[in-house]
Design goal:
Order of helices and strands of chain B: HHHEEEEEEEEEEHHEEEEHHHHH
Distance between the termini of chain B: 89 Å
Structural class of chain B: alpha+beta
Number of strands of chain A: 9
Strand content of chain B: 5-15%
Oligomer: heterodimer
Number of helices of chain B: 10
Structural class of chain A: alpha+beta
Chain lengths: 377, 429
């Protein structure tokens, strides 16, 4: 009745039971008793399984039992998915107490791990041929795995490369670094393309070295942080500080002299030696009377400079109005150039605050008399 | 032997009877559709042009419609002929052929010729409708949920649309719902939008033009015939798209001059001690934060002029589009709330809409009087505007617009306040 293998486990179960009784009666510790009861139950369960499977011992002359025995069938393939699911559970737990993004990452890993594990289990039951089963799995899984792996791999490469580029000490060194990296890739490509004798292991090794260098470089650069990058200030920044004068500021360096919004301009204001004039779409000649612009809407005003000196167009808006800048100006516009100014008037020109401020008007700093009244009804 | 109920209907008899019934129903439906197109009282009928631009479209569309009709009749007739002539009568299957070059060439050539013949005048009309060089009057039109704003610019010669005010200097005019233009004047609407895409269409005066935020679009309007021409927004623009209407008022030049002078008249405060005067205070307290009335001054309850403050609205702080209708001369308009409801009673409305071109100007310029006011709709509107016109005006559901409403919110006005406001608004003309 009792098989060879089960005798050991049965003995251990009985010994554990005795130890449990003795300890429970004599010592009476709760934790120890629970531990011994658990050990007894576990040993008893294992003994029962071994008895039930008859030690997995198949008689040599029992052909049917031999063919159906576990040892006669292929062992299920090893898989990393249980490990991935465990990692996902840990990541989600960490995410719950730290950042939502980490939790979402863990969730994605969990879903992917479960799906892959299920797919693998399904494929392994397709036939008794392990190779065929692997093909079955691959046909379905590769459609998702390959793009995902490519995206992740590319993402790692791009991110690591960007860290390296941002970590280099100057803009010049990034150019040099980029050129060196591009040259290396080109040289490698040329070498592989022209020399057919390069073996697969050699190529794999080269790619592995390149990958390690890139990822470790990216990690080091990422930990060191980005170099100090100057943030270019806009005309809005200088306008808020009241610096919309005739002098050049950093926002004027390399300023575009072309216009993006010319297809939908509310007016085109031109500065020439006679001062400021404007035309609205449909006007045939320049006007100097008050320019009427609508309220609460984006007005694209194009400023053209026909004078020899670089100039900018400026308009003072309602002071101390929440949500509205106190003034706006274009960049310095060179002779013959143009710049766009998009103005949104929050209050009409008869608002007392605007009236007290001298009303709305376009002016040109440094040019006396260049003033164009703006009416916002 | 026949059955007691008479002869059993054969399949042929049944199908013929069914066909006859279907044919009768179809003919009745076609007749109703056909007859409905003969309606003369159709304010948005594209087949009744009343201006040169709409006439150009009409002159283009009716021959195309006729050609399309002829082609349709020929094709349908040919199909019917084939179906009847070659129906299954038990004859053997005829010889099958594949491809007949001359027939296929014809199938390509005939549509190509027709399309080319249509394209040439179409391009001409499209280009003519895009002309702006002959503009005599430019009016800005701005769409927002769910009404249209018009502002008239003062030209370099100090006139508005070529008309100088009879007294004083011209200043910009802002109105809404109805745009008033002089007869025989080539008007150019310069349009845009403050929130979403709208489309401007007065069918009797011109085709449609989309109004896109951040862009400027142009549309020509003109008519020789004084009258009122209806239209509506034709680009789905939200909850009350169907309630976004507009009208163009065409006045004889002399009548336009009268209208212009009236618009430019300075603000007159109601007499002290009247219900309208109380309405002015209520308007300042309840309405003026969004609605502008030009010239309105808050005396802050004192007789000292130094305490007077010009009342300026700040709709950009309360309304998503940043605008609300200017109510300076509300009662010189026939409609309110996006031209959806009449300010006139049905009888008085008929006097305006059915007036002859010669009498139209006088009828329109009477504006809205006490006995002609459609108080029912106006009162309902003031009582609870979102209940009357669907709008996004519930403060609890406005997180995505930072609490700003789309349209007019519920103001919880008392009946006394509504009485006061109506009395005040009645004087706004």
């Amino acid at each position: 009745m009792f098989t060879t293998g089960s005798k050991l486990l049965l003995g251990a179960t009985v010994a554990s039971l005795v130890a449990t009784l003795l300890y429970g009666i004599l010592a009476g510790g709760l934790m120890g008793t629970i531990g011994l009861v658990s050990a007894t139950a576990a040993l008893g369960t294992l003994a029962g399984i071994v008895i039930f499977t008859r030690d997995a011992n198949v008689a040599a002359d029992d052909i049917d039992a031999f063919a159906g025995a576990a040892a006669a069938t292929d062992r299920p393939g090893g898989g990393m998915w249980p490990l991935a699911i465990g990692l996902a559970a840990v990541t989600m737990t960490v995410g719950l107490v730290t950042y939502t993004a980490i939790f979402i990452l863990g969730l994605i890993l969990l879903i992917a791990g479960v799906a892959e594990w299920m797919l693998q289990a399904w494929a392994e039951r397709a036939s008794s041929d392990a190779r065929h089963n692997a093909e079955v799995r691959g046909r379905l899984a590769y459609t998702a795995e390959m793009p995902a792996a490519a995206a992740i791999g590319l993402g790692i490469v791009i991110y690591a490369f960007s860290r390296v580029m941002l970590g280099l000490p100057s803009k010049t060194s990034t150019i040099v670094g980029f050129a060196v990296a591009a040259s290396l890739v080109l040289a490698m490509g040329t070498l592989v393309g022209t020399n057919r004798k390069v073996s697969a292991p050699t190529l794999t090794g080269l790619f592995a070295i390149a990958g390690v260098v890139l990822i470790s470089g990216g990690a080091v650069a990422g930990l060191n942080g980005e170099r100090e990058i100057e943030i270019h200030k806009t005309t809005a920044y200088y306008a808020a500080k009241g610096e919309c004068g005739a002098e050049e500021v950093s926002a004027d360096e390399d300023a575009s002299q072309t216009v993006a919004g010319k297809a939908s301009q509310a007016a085109e204001v031109t500065l020439d030696d006679a001062g400021l004039t404007y035309v609205k779409p449909g006007d045939l000649v320049g006007r100097t009377d008050a320019l009427q612009l609508p309220r609460s809407n984006a007005n694209n005003v194009v400023f053209r400079n026909e004078t020899a000196e670089p100039r900018r167009l400026l308009i003072e808006l309602a002071p101390d109005l929440e949500g509205s800048p106190p003034r706006m100006c274009t960049q310095l516009v060179k002779e013959g150039g143009a710049a766009l100014l998009t103005v949104n008037f929050a209050v009409p020109s008869f608002d007392p605050a605007v009236v007290d401020n001298g009303g709305y008007a376009f002016t040109v700093p440094g040019v006396d008399g260049a003033r164009l009244e703006v009416v916002v009804p | 032997m026949s059955s007691p109920a008479g002869p059993v209907p054969t399949l042929d008899r049944v199908s013929h009877r069914s066909l006859r019934r279907v044919g009768l129903v179809g003919a009745a439906a076609a007749a109703s559709v056909g007859l409905s197109s003969c309606a003369t009282d159709a304010p948005q009928d594209t087949w009744q042009p009343a201006g040169e631009n709409a006439q150009m479209i009409h002159d283009l569309q009716w021959p195309i419609f006729a050609v399309a009709g002829v082609v349709g009749v020929i094709v349908l007739g040919f199909i019917a002929f084939i179906v009847v002539k070659y129906r299954d009568k038990g004859q053997p299957i005829p010889e099958q052929t594949h491809g007949k070059a001359w027939l296929e060439y014809m199938f390509i050539a005939i549509p190509a010729v027709i399309l080319a013949a249509i394209a040439i005048p179409t391009v001409g009309v499209v280009m003519a409708l895009a002309e702006t060089d002959d503009t005599e009057c430019t009016i800005n039109v701005t769409g927002q949920q769910w009404w249209w704003e018009y502002d008239y610019e003062v030209g370099p010669d100090g006139t508005i649309c070529g008309f100088a005010p009879s007294a004083g200097e011209a200043s910009p005019i802002i109105t809404s719902g109805q745009v008033v233009i002089p007869a025989g004047t080539k008007v150019l609407l310069r349009g845009t939008s403050r929130d979403v895409i709208h489309s401007y269409w007065i069918p009797k005066l011109n085709g449609k033009r989309d109004m896109v935020p951040g862009r400027v679009h142009y549309l020509r309007l003109s008519s020789e015939t004084p009258g009122i021409y209806a239209g509506q927004c034709t680009e789905f623009c939200g909850l009350s798209h169907a309630n976004m209407r507009m009208e163009t008022i065409v006045l004889e030049p002399a009548d336009f001059q009268t209208w212009l002078d009236n618009e430019l008249e300075p603000y007159t405060s109601p007499d002290e001690g009247t219900l309208a005067k109380q309405g002015e205070a209520t308007f300042i307290a309840q309405c003026a934060r969004c609605h502008q009335v030009n010239g309105l001054v808050d005396d802050r309850g004192t007789d000292d002029p130094s305490d007077d403050t010009v009342v300026v609205s700040y709709p950009d702080q309360f309304v998503y589009s940043g605008a609300a209708p200017n109510l300076t001369n509300l009662m010189m308009r026939n409609t309110f709330a996006g031209a959806t409801w009449d300010l006139l009673t049905p009888e008085c409305r008929a006097d305006v809409w059915e007036a002859s071109p010669e009498e139209f100007g006088a009828a329109f310029l009477r504006g809205v009087s006490d006995d002609c006011l459609n108080e029912i709709d106006l009162r309902e509107w003031l009582r609870n505007s979102p209940a009357k016109k669907p709008m996004y005006a519930d403060a609890e559901m406005l997180a995505e617009t930072d609490g700003k409403t789309r349209g007019m919110p519920y103001l919880a006005l008392s009946e006394d306040q509504i009485d006061e406001l109506i009395a005040y608004l009645l004087e706004r003309k």
